[in-house]
Amino acid sequence: MKASTISQDEVLTREKQLPAFPSVVGKILDAIDDVDANLNLLIELIAKDPVMTSQVISRANRIAPFGRNNRSISELKVATALIGTVTIRHIALIGGFFQFSGATLKDHTVFTNHCISTALCSEELSKHLNINISMEAALITGLLHDIGKLWILRFRSNEYIDLKIKKREGSSSSHQLEIDYFGVDHAQVGYWLAEHWKLPHTICSAILNHHHPERDSTETLVSLTHVSDVLSHALELNLEADNRVKYLSNSACENIGLEWNADIRPLFGRIDARNRYSRTFFDMTHEA
pLDDT tens digits, residue range 212-241? Predict the structure, then answer.
C-alpha cells in the first residue's frame, strides 16, 4: 500500500513544529569569516542549554593549570578560552544537533549517531585531503544530510515503519523505497527544509544529492558528504542493523582526491576514535 505523497507544502507547514536549531546554524555559517563573531555565536548556542554549559565548565576545570589562584572556573567565556575554539565548535554544533534530534524524536539514538558519525567523517576527510571547505560547513552538512529523514520519522512515522518492513522483504535501497512510497525521498524533503532555512546553496545541494553526487559534480561538498555518508556505514559507526554499502561513486572519490591506499588507514582510526569519544560525551551529556 502506497502512502499519500509528501508535498513541499506539507513539509514547510509542519516545519513550524520543529525546534529552532537550524536557524542558529545559518548565523554561524554567515559568520565563518569573522572568528570572534563565530565564537560568540557558538558560546550563545551552548549557553542556551544548561547541561552543555556545565559540561564545558567541567572540562575547563579539569584542564586548568594547577594552582590557578585556587579558584574554580565558573564563567562560560573563561572556560571557552581554556578549551579552545575547535572543541567549542564540536560541543556547540554536535551538542545542539543532539538536543534538536531529541526534541524532535523520542527514540532518536540511531538517527543521531549516524548523522554525528557522518559529520565527523566529513571533517576528518576534509582535513586529511586538504579540501578547501570550512570545518563548520563540513560538520554542519554531515549533521544535516539526513534531516529529511528526521522529518519523515517525526511526521510520517507509521508509514515509515511500513516502509522499513518492505525494505527487509526486498532489495531496493531506502531512498528508492521512499520515492515509491511517498513520491519523494528524504533527500528531497531535506532540501526543501534547507532551502526554507536559507542555508547556503552548497549545503542544500549536498543534502539533495548525497545519494547521487553525479547530479552536481561541480560542488565538492556534495562529493564529500556522499563519501562521508558511505564511509560511516562502511565503518559501522552508527550501530544500524543494515550497514551494507550498496553504492560508492567513483567520480565523487575522484572529485575530492580520495585514493584507497595504505595512507588512508590512519584516517579510519582517527574517525573511529573521535566517533567513540563523541558518542560517550554526548550520551553523558544527555544523561546529565
Answer: 999 998 899 999 999 999 998 887 666 554
Q: What angle do CA 121, 123, 125 make, to 5 degrees?
A: 65
Residue 194 burial (CB count, 10 A): 26
Query: What are the structural domains, with CATH classification, of the chain?
Result: 8-287 (1.10.3210.10)
Q: Please give the Cα distance from 91 to 32 (Å, whole number).
A: 17
Average pLDDT across the chain, whole number: 83
pLDDT of residue 181: 86
Q: What pLDDT is attached to residue 288?
A: 47
